[in-house]
Amino acid sequence: MQIAVIGAGAAGYFAAFSCKRHHPDAQVTIFEKTSKVLQKVKVSGGGRCNVTHNAPNISDLTKHYPRGANQLKKCFGHFNVKSTIEWFEGRGVKLKSEADNRMFPVSDSSQTIIDCFNKEAAQLDIEILLKSPVKRINIIEKGFELEVGGQVRQFDKVIITSGGSPKLEGFKWLSDLGHEIKPPVPSLFTFNMPGNPITKLMGLSVNDASVKIVGSKLQYTGPLLITHWGMSGPAVLKLSAWGARELYDKNYDFKVQVNWSGYSSEEELRGFLGEVRDSKKKISNYNPIEAIPGRLWSFLLDKIQADQEKRWLDLDKKSFNKLVNVLINDQYDVKGKTTFKEEFVTCGGVALEDVNFKTMESRKVPGMYFAGEVLDVDGITGGFNFQAAWSTAFVAGKLDSADLN
Questions:
Q1: Same domain, residue pair 362 and 315
Q2: Secondary structure class of 326 (helix, strand, coil)
Q3: How many domains does one find in the chain?
Q4: Is the domain of 254 the same as that of 291?
């Protein structure tokens, strides 16, 4: 059996491994249009490769996918986080879990993963052809013809692991085969706040900020990082994933509301601050909220034009109300976005309805399978996109036929 895998990324390699596991006698060829393989693996996690997320319970795992959560449950039933850990450790790559449950190789180097994959590919005799873009896929009576490098090669099965594309045209070759394509939009980005004074606090982080898109239900709580262009950190990145399409429709021009205080309600915050209002300390010197760094506290006091020489004891009702409001309902204008590092992630791609997630086979083209980011599936930051790649690729590589399920 001749199997073609299109795309030498995380999903492509893993689909090829799965093919050889389930069909040892098959000849598997990976076609890569560029001169390099595993590029996202290389840059993931700041070069450390965030392999997966320590969420062994499938119901907990699926909560981290803005698109495709229900469909992925079927794949996770075959290959989940535990399977991922066992697969890597079975090949000598030990993984570790960090405080936020992100999992990395103990080496803290993505090269460890790349070396592991290349070694596995060599051992399984998987052919990898670089600078080999697939120009066209023709459906024939018994399989497929692929036009590559001026040649036509025949295959029995094809697995598409070509990744996401920033433009709809990047999926034309798949829509030409009858697949519906959900338009791609960015799914992991930071918020730009050009000219806002808060950018002077770049490098400052708050561990438990709650960020909300004003006028919507979109909200996320977690670490927030102030940068020289605006706001980043897990709270913002995860919010950008959940709001990918809505924020695209707003042309990335919207307001965010930030709760810096750690309190879930204004009533609770007022009650807490009320306990310090009889203090003789100056408000500039006495920040009672441990979660707020000193530089941010001073910035917020300046923002509401508070008299920082005043003692808490002398704070009038109007100033107290303004302080409460800025701590729990601080607002900023967002004008634009920035892609998070080099980890480009999109939502969009092959419509989920066009794929049988029990097998990852196309419902439109029998014998064609999909895995990874080419699908309209994406997770928030933290190892979830790689886990989706491993799981969908494992199932796709089994080459089960949809009509048997």
A1: no
A2: helix
A3: 2
A4: yes
